[in-house]
Amino acid sequence: MYPPEFLYTKDHEWIRVDESVGTIGITDYAQKELGDVVFVELPKPGDHVTASESFGTVESVKAVSEIYSPVSGEVTAVNTKLQNNPEMVNTDPHGEAWLVRVQLADRREIDKLMRADEYEVYIQQEKAH
Amino acid sequence: MRYLPNSSADRQAMLRATGHAHIDELFSQIQSDLRFNGKLNLPGPFSEAEILEFFQQAAAESSREYVSLLGAGAYSHYRPVVIDALLSRGEFFTAYTPYQAEISQGTLQAMFEFQTMMTQLTGQEVSNASLYDGSTAATEAALMALRLTRRRRVALARTLHPEYRQVLKTYVRHQDVELVEVPYAASGQVDLAQLEYTLDAQTAAVVIQSPNFFGTLERIPEIASIAHRQGALLIVTVTEPLSLAIVKPPREADIVCGEAQSFGVPVAFGGPYVGFLTTRERFVRQMPGRLVGQTVDTEGRRGFVLTLATREQHIRREKATSNICTNQSLCALAATIYLCLLGKTGLRQLAEQNLAKAHYAAAQLGAIPGVVTPFTGPRFNEFVVNVPGDAECLLEDLRREKIIGGLHLGELYPELANHLLLGFTELVSRAAIDRLVKVCRQFSAKVFVSQDFSPPRR
User: Fold this and answer.
1) Alpha helix segments (H runs only) across B186-328
2) Residue A121 covered by a domain
3) Domain for residue A41, yes or no?
4) From the CA of A1, how many Å to the nearest CA of chain B?
5) In chain B, what residues touch A60 (CB-CB under 8 Å)?
6) Where are the domains of chain B?
7) Best CATH choice for the domain B67-76+343-451 from the list 3.10.20.70, 3.40.50.300, 2.60.40.10, 3.90.1150.10
8) Which CATH class is domain B82-338?
9) Among B22-31, B89-98, B125-134, which is the least confidently predicted range?
10) B380 and which of A57, B243, B262, B277 could share a cystine (Cβ 3.0–4.6 Å)?
């Protein structure tokens, strides 16, 4: 379910790091909790994002939720397909519906993130609450 | 009128319940030297009948016999009686949208119609279901532009209502926002060269008013292109929305906002008035306030819902588009009824009547020796006159003739001492204008005789 090559945050974002570029999205658990996604608000290429700070929002029929960045750095690409197809976040959260790519400012930041097996334990605990 | 009296027995019972021996204990937190110890200078209690008589007499003495030329953001227009008859129906008579909003389809439909008409008048794509008043609408528009552009600087035209500027200043006081003022030119319009000079790549928005505080129409397309060249948004504020019935809608603006009191809401000290805000569809997610949308139910019937509510404060708390906005459903309903009653043709005819009265008055006043209408820009139903001598004395003379002679601008604009801002709605008769002109002519003659020199030749 949760790709082992990704790292995960407690706020339910994932990141896949290739060299020094991280691709960021929200997890399958997050999209299920949100319900039908109707709008995704993202930064522009060139904007700076900071670890643990909000860089955009995902709006579902129930709520508008912040997206928190797993890492700090400069946005190099934004998934423009989401503008007209926000429902992709529900259908393919770990693939087609990636949100942004970020040039990592500090690779050490990813050491704090969870591995897939840790994340699965974490969401079991979340569900128990 | 309902009294909510409490007797001394009631007060004793309340004190027993809260566990206090004396009412003063409730104020013990306030230092005694900060408390008022004298007797309040208030008349004794009146009976219900006495109170009614008091206010009826006060109303008869003040408003009815007087002709008011006060505009400056609040306009005396005729209110068809059917407005209050419909407003006071039990189904409508609340200031708020109900908590389970979709139960009240009638209220939502009325708000939907309000939104539709406001977008038609302002030439914009979406409208919210009203805001608190014109000044807070202008402020919300500026805050919206700050969010949309992620910039921290706003340029305000000096021709924007001074109180609106003050409200805006209060709101952003602790928000690290820089406000800059753009002066006006001899025409009474925004000085375009100065505007160009003031704007930079950090400016989020330019806030203007049209017709502006002097009653002059602004050059909106020119101002829009100057703003847009710097990536700033143009916010057009309208305090006299009746003007929108005959002037070109401000389509070039990114946000149009203002006061809709002119549409069926009586002039009242302290309101309630009704703000509006319209914008482009692509900005809808940053638009504050409630938005009513049209949809179909499971059987395909037309219905109305609150939409995009996920960005409102009861759901999104501190991240909401606004934590301080409200709406004015009842006043917006008055505006909706008013606009429906007048219709497209009626509204235009009314606006033409206002325009004609103001222009007749301007021509008559301008012909008086020493009286000058300084601003040359096009106007709607308000304009500025510079009077010879002390404007306060002229206002006194006018009051004796049962005319409230407009607003003396000297206090708000020190450079405009002895300038009066005069407004002419359909409620100002031609006879009243002729009376105004007569008093002004006598005043002018008096001033020139006392100063012992002839008026300048025109």
Assistant:
1) 192-198, 220-229, 313-316
2) no
3) yes
4) 30
5) 310
6) 67-76+343-451, 82-338
7) 3.90.1150.10
8) alpha beta
9) B89-98
10) B243
Name B428's bridge partners.
Answer: none
Domain that holds residue A30: 8-111
Binding-site residues on chain A for chain B (CB distance < 8 A): 39, 41, 59-64, 66
Per the CB < 8 Å rule, is B316 touching A39? no
B376 pLDDT above the threshold of 90: yes
Q: B222-248: buried (b, 16+ CB within 10 Å) or exposed (e) per residue?
A: ebbebbeebebbbbbbbbbbbbbbebe
Q: Which of A37, A38, A55, A64 is the mutation pick for testing B, counting most B CBs within 10 A?
A: A64
Q: B311 vs A39: CB contact, 8 Å cut-off?
A: no
What is residue B458's predicted lDDT score, i.e. its pLDDT?
46
Q: Which of B218, B237, B236, B238 is nearest to B75 (CA)?
A: B238
- The average confidence (pLDDT) of chain B is 92
CA distance readout (Å), B85 to B88, B89, B274, B419: 6, 7, 19, 40
List the alpha helices (DSSP H) in B281-328: 313-316
pTM of the entire predicted model: 0.85
Q: Contact B233/B255 with Cβ under 8 angstroms?
A: yes
Do the chains contact at A63 and B310, CB–CB below 8 Å? Answer: yes
Sign of CA dihedral B260, B264, B269, B273: negative
Residue B234: in which H helix or E strand, if any?
strand B233-238
Please name every residue paired with A15 in a beta bridge, in sequence order, or none if there are none: A7, A24
ipTM of the complex: 0.73
Total number of domains in chain A? 1
The model's pLDDT over B256-270, given as tens digits with 9 standing for 90+, comes to 999 999 999 999 887
What's the rounded Cα separation, in Å, for the pair A54 and A111? 20
Specify the CATH number for the domain of residue A104. Answer: 2.40.50.100
How much is the pLDDT for B310? 74
